[in-house]
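Thread title: Can someone regenerate the structure for this chain?

I was given the following input by a collaborator and told the matching structure tokens would be attached. They weren't. Posting the sequence so someone can regenerate them.
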Amino acid sequence: MKLSFYGGAGSVTGANYLLESAGFSVLVDCGLIQGAPSVEKKNLEPFSYDPSSVKAVFITHAHMDHIGRLPKLFCDGFAGTIYSTKATKDLAELALLDAQHLQEKEGKIPFCEGPVVSDLMKLWKCVDYHQTVIEGPFAVRFYDAGHVLGSSFISFDVEGKRLVFSGDLGNTPAPIIKPTEKLPDCDYLLVESTYGGRTHEDSSLRDSVLEDVIEDVAKDKGTLIIPVFALERAQDILLRMNDLFEKNKVPRMPVFVDSPLAIKMTAVYGKYEDLFNKEAENKVLRGDDIFNFPGLKLTPTTEESKAINEVSPPKIIIAGSGMSQGGRILHHEKRYLPDPKSTILFVGYQTAGSLGRAILEGSKEIVIMGEEIPVRCKVKQITSYSAHADQPRLLSWIETSRARLKKVFVVQGDPEQAQALATKLKDDLIVRAVVPEAGSVVELD
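Best answer:
Regenerated them for you:
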């Protein structure tokens, strides 16, 4: 059995793993490589394998760094089956359609023309958690990863061995969705390391820090802009603001969700309340519209988005993209980053080379749409809103399977984060752990 690391090795984004046994090839994820423009050019390069030879793709969740190159895979010859949970399929379709629309709007050439996403969806099959799927020699099972709605980690039983792909693991307990399930006993594990060397701040601080930031913006009569990922982070923030406003913990002010994709994805959540945790489920049962409150305005159209500028502060703008790599947040950053009364609040991971990382790390001037923009506003961050497990959670999750584990491959992290987790696994759990190189191929004995 061979395992090839064609994305997600040595970087957070671009997850793409090829698993081969008895002449049968399958993929786990096929994501976009994200970051600086020079890095993102790699998305257009040919795959390191023949897409037409791949029999199936198993998708962990609907973030673009796990699904974004599926259209290219399809146009380059893939004609097999795509598997994921129902929620992931619904969210992935929205995300892929939105990405294609943005490419066309910005004058960028998409991977291929035509109704690619609708054709791709015809290959997609939905599975339930714990349901076993048979593809060639592989017996495959999905488990709840607790990362975003419908997210999974996936186990493969083949050749008398079990291999688990973590996908992205949740920062349990999460505001909305259920906790990450226990890792089943396995021989090999690919584990994400986005925060492999870090510990999140106490999750109980989430509300208090957000409350403080909103109060400061109200006092300064400024604007709070929050770059968000349309999936999970936008919904988490709306849920928390709903609580803060309903309990009168912060002054009322206009709140805008300026992301057509986030608006559509929030609507999907209503179809999958069975995936909510007990706290969120109980709120829904009590009749609480957890993603809505007085003062909230959704702005799906361009005209509505532009009209936000006419609303006097204090006000809050929630917009995509989460790492400020595109989308409507860029227009708001151009307007409000130079304003000392305003605040930009990061609630998600900012990958190396992204505009969001540059702002977060203290750049006093950045370039947006070819224009130099001074950064004079306050810059804040809440790491406990992250949907990724930190080092202590990752170690705790892996520890339950340490007796059987032959090797752990640490992936989906910046090099220093991946190495920090690998070292901790070797030192604390006495587990063989390696950080694979991009493009490397290993044989699993």
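The longest helix spans residues 86-105.
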